[in-house]
Write a structure and sequence with these properties.
With about 300 residues, this protein is of the alpha+beta class. The chain folds into three domains: about 110 residues, no CATH class; about 50 residues, SH3 type barrels; about 120 residues, Alpha-Beta Plaits, CATH 3.30.70.100. This is Small-conductance mechanosensitive channel.
C-alpha cells in the first residue's frame, strides 16, 4: 500500500526522464519482489493447512512437503523473474527461446541427474514407500532411511547401507512389507506311510486347534494334500495379523513345538527321506521259492 501511494505521488511530479525511468524500474523490482513473496507464502500456507487438517499424524508426509516447498518456491520465482523482465521491456520470447536451447544442451549433458530428480518428485507425490518402511527392490531389501534428490538409501538386515538411484526405484517393482496388514503363511510337512487312516484324520483337527491357540494367528485350512515319494503330505495355511516378521517367527515357532508335542502324544511320526531296496537271496530262493528281502535305508 505504501509503495502504491509513493508511486502514484511520484507520477504527479515532473521529473527528468532518466530519473523517472529509474524510479519506475525500482518500483517494478520492489513490487515484483513483494508479490512473489506473497504468492509463495500463500501457497505454503495452503499446503500446510491441508496437511494439518487431513494428515496431521503422518510425519512422513510432513517431510515430503518440506522437501517439495523449495521446488515450488523456485517455480514461483522463475515466473516472477519472467514477469519482471517483460515489464522492463525485454523480449521474453527471445529469452525463453535462448533458455530453451540452453536447456536442451544442459538436459542432454545431465540426463541421468534430471531423470533421478523427476523420479524424486514422483516418489514424493505418489509415495510408494515412506521413511521406516521395509521394502524389497529386485535383489535388495532393507528399511528406508533417506530419500534424496538423486538417491534413496536403505539399511539392510545385515546392517550395510544400500544406495539406489531414484530412477531405478521408480522403474522397478517394489514390495512394501510395512503396509502389509496380514501375512499369509503356508507350510508343509509329511508323515510316514505307515500312519493309519484314523491318525491321518486327526491331523487337520490337531493343527486347527494348535493355530487357534496361538497368539496373533488365524487358522485358514489344513489338508492332506497328496502322496509324496516317501511321505503322506499335508499343507497348512494360516494368517498372522501383523506385518512384524518377529511376531510371525514367534508364532511359527510355537506352532512347530506344539505340533511336535501333539504328534508324539498320538504316536504320529514325521517322515524322512528313505529308500527301500529289495535284495534277492539266491540260496533262500532255491530252498523256499522266494528270496526277496526288503531293506529300508535312510537317505
Amino acid at each position: 500500500m505504501y509503495l502504491g501511494g509513493f508511486f502514484l505521488a511520484i507520477q504527479n511530479l515532473t521529473l527528468h526522464p532518466i530519473l523517472g525511468r529509474i524510479i519506475e524500474v525500482l518500483a517494478i523490482f520492489v513490487a515484483t519482489f513483494f508479490v512473489v513473496k506473497l504468492i509463495t507464502s500463500l501457497v505454503e500456507c495452503v499446503i500446510k493447512i491441508y496437511w494439518l487438517n487431513y494428515h496431521r499424524d503422518n510425519s512422513n508426509l510432513e517431510q515430503s512437503i518440506d522437501a517439495l516447498l523449495p521446488a515450488i518456491r523456485v517455480v514461483i520465482w522463475l515466473i516472477g523473474i519472467i514477469f519482471l523482465l517483460d515489464n522492463l521491456g525485454f523480449n521474453i520470447s527471445a529469452v525463453v527461446a535462448s533458455l530453451g536451447i540452453g536447456g536442451v544442451a544442459v538436459a542432454l549433458a545431465s540426463q541421468g541427474v534430471l531423470q533421478d530428480l523427476f523420479s524424486y518428485f514422483s516418489i514424493l507425490l505418489d509415495r510408494p514407500f515412506e521413511l521406516g518402511d521395509f521394502i524389497i527392490v529386485g535383489d535388495y531389501l532393507g528399511t528406508v532411511e533417506y530419500v534424496g534428490i538423486k538417491t534413496t538409501r536403505l539399511r539392510s538386515i545385515d546392517g550395510e547401507e544400500i544406495i539406489i538411484a531414484n530412477t531405478d526405484l521408480t522403474s522397478s517393482r517394489i514390495r512394501n512389507y510395512k503396509r502389509m496388514q496380514q501375512r499369509r503363511v503356508v507350510f508343509k510337512f509329511g508323515v510316514l506311510y505307515e500312519t493309519n487312516s484314523e491318525q491321518l484324520a486327526k491331523i487337520p483337527v490337531l493343527i486347527e486347534n494348535i493355530i487357534n491357540d496361538t497368539e496373533n494367528a488365524t487358522y485358514d485350512r489344513a489338508h492332506f494334500s497328496g502322496y509324496g515319494a516317501y511321505s503322506l503330505d499335508f499343507e497348512i495355511v494360516y494368517f498372522i495379523e501383523s506385518n512384524d516378521y518377529t511376531i510371525y517367527m514367534d508364532a511359527q515357532q510355537k506352532i512347530n513345538f506344539k505340533v511336535k508335542s501333539e504328534f508324539a502324544k498320538h504316536h504320529i511320526e514325521f517322515a524322512y527321506p528313505t529308500q527301500v531296496n529289495y535284495l534277492n537271496n539266491l540260496e533262500t530262493n532255491q530252498n523256499n521259492g522266494n528270496g526277496n528281502k526288503a531293506v529300508e535305508i535312510p537317505l
